[in-house]
Design a protein that fits this description.
The protein is 32% helix and 17% strand. It is α+β, with helices and mostly antiparallel strands. It has two domains: 107 residues, Alpha-Beta Plaits (2-Layer Sandwich), CATH 3.30.70.790; 298 residues, Rossmann fold (3-Layer(aba) Sandwich), CATH 3.40.50. Helix 2 runs antiparallel to helix 3, helix 2 crosses helix 5 and helix 8 crosses helix 9.
Length: 419
């Protein structure tokens, strides 16, 4: 009996010692493809395996169960990984749990179902989010006005808004591109779709789409938007029932007093902004800082805020990176005027020199939203017709990592509030 007991104890401790995990490091020194690392994590969740996201540990690393399939997938996708023992994993988790460390281990439980709101026919490289989802091999479905108006968003956990104009002004491209064949065709397509859906104006259709998206968030959905989808979405909500479109957009004049009729109580993130009245100016409102900027490309960076991982895990998750300083990049909506952001909205990335916020987050009803200024994190000044970004050249992009943080966020196990 003594020999049997000794054997069983030895076997137990051997298993405990040699059981292993896959650690995917996310620091700058150890990881050669940060973007595809998110795809490995998502793929693992799809296999119904749980993952621990180690916030602030080596750049926000991932701890996965060790299987041959996971190791092979990492090798195939070119993702750096380390096989560590159970004892080493426990040691890491103990370090993270220490009150003296600004770290936290968050359990990721289920791969979120992802929707991208984008016009039919748009190519993946027209939008940074679809491009990085493709590159990271994270599956998504596309939806547009018809699906949104038919409550199709209820099938999804996470929604990205393509660089849309929810005001019905066709992206304010009229001044420069009104004679271009692509602009004329896109206007015709938008009008035909609005008519098909039972609307006399594109602006009316877009408002109802924005309201459906608002309700999706209020009900518990997560919305992520970049560039012009951020401010045009809020403007559409604030201008509900008010005609802010000039005749070249909707066939009749705008309300002469529309600025005074804007209701800032209806917006998600912005307040006290002034609308740009000229249809020839490539700008929606004073929210955007593009025309106010006095900084050069070589010095254009924004800094990520540091939050308490144990007390504020949500913004900590959304800011995970291997650097606190991220290269700036422009877009129709490059960044947001700090003074026009609501006080209950969290600024997670900012450029203090310009008095602008680049990356913001908020809670609306039971759901969440994140707004990220700019068009493409690795294309400083993207213009119409420019070549697509090749992410194989930017596999460690900090700017793109912020997008993928948002993709994984809905997978996190909901923790009870500490207060």
């Amino acid at each position: 009996m003594k020999k049997l007991l000794f054997f069983l104890l030895t076997l137990f401790f051997s298993i405990k010692t040699y059981a292993s995990y896959v650690l995917i490091p996310m620091d700058s020194e150890s990881q050669k493809n940060h973007l595809k690392a998110y795809g490995i994590t998502f793929w693992t969740l799809e296999k119904q395996l749980k993952v621990k996201w180690l916030l602030n540990y080596r750049g926000g690393s991932f701890l996965l169960p060790d299987t041959e399939a996971i190791q092979q997938e990492c090798q195939i996708r070119g993702v750096s990984f380390e096989v560590i023992s159970n004892a080493k994993a426990e040691s890491i988790l103990e370090e993270i749990a220490s009150p003296s460390q600004n770290m936290e281990a968050v359990v990721l439980e289920k791969a979120p179902k992802i929707a991208v709101y984008t016009p039919k026919g748009k190519l993946p490289w027209d939008d940074a989010v679809t491009m990085v989802l493709k590159y990271a091999e994270i599956p998504y479905e596309t939806v547009y006005d018809e699906e949104v108006l038919n409550d199709g968003l209820l099938l999804f956990d996470w929604l990205h808004l393509h660089h849309e104009d929810f005001t019905g002004q066709y992206g304010k491209f009229y001044g420069m591109y009104r004679s271009s064949s692509w602009y004329i065709q896109e206007k015709k397509d938008a009008e035909a779709l609005a008519t098909k859906l039972g609307y006399s104006k594109v602006s009316e259709a877009k408002l109802d789409v924005a309201l459906k998206i608002r309700n999706y968030v209020l009900g518990g959905g997560f919305m992520f938007a970049m560039c012009s989808a951020t401010d045009s979405f809020d403007i559409a909500l604030a201008a509900e029932g008010v005609d802010i479109c000039e005749p070249m957009f909707d066939g009749d004049g705008s309300d002469p007093a529309y600025q005074n009729k804007i209701d800032f109580n209806k917006t998600f993130a912005f307040t006290n902004f002034l609308l740009e009245t000229s249809p020839k100016v490539y700008e929606f409102s004073s929210i955007d800082t593009t025309r106010k900027r006095t900084i050069s490309k070589t010095t254009d960076y924004f800094s990520l805020m540091e939050f308490s991982a144990k007390w504020d895990p949500i913004p900590t998750m959304l800011c995970q990176n291997h650097t606190a300083l991220v290269k700036g990049f422009m877009g129709q909506t490059t960044a947001f005027t700090r003074d026009e952001i609501k006080s209950n909205v969290l600024v997670m990335g900012e450029n203090k020199t310009n008095g602008e916020a680049k990356y913001i987050h908020g809670i609306k009803g039971k759901g969440f939203f994140t707004f990220y200024g700019g068009h493409d994190p690795e294309d400083y000044q993207h213009r119409v017709g420019d070549a697509k970004t090749e992410l194989d050249l930017h596999p460690t992009s900090p700017g793109y990592r912020l997008i993928l943080n948002n993709v994984l966020f809905p997978a996190a196990k909901k923790k009870k509030q500490k207060t």
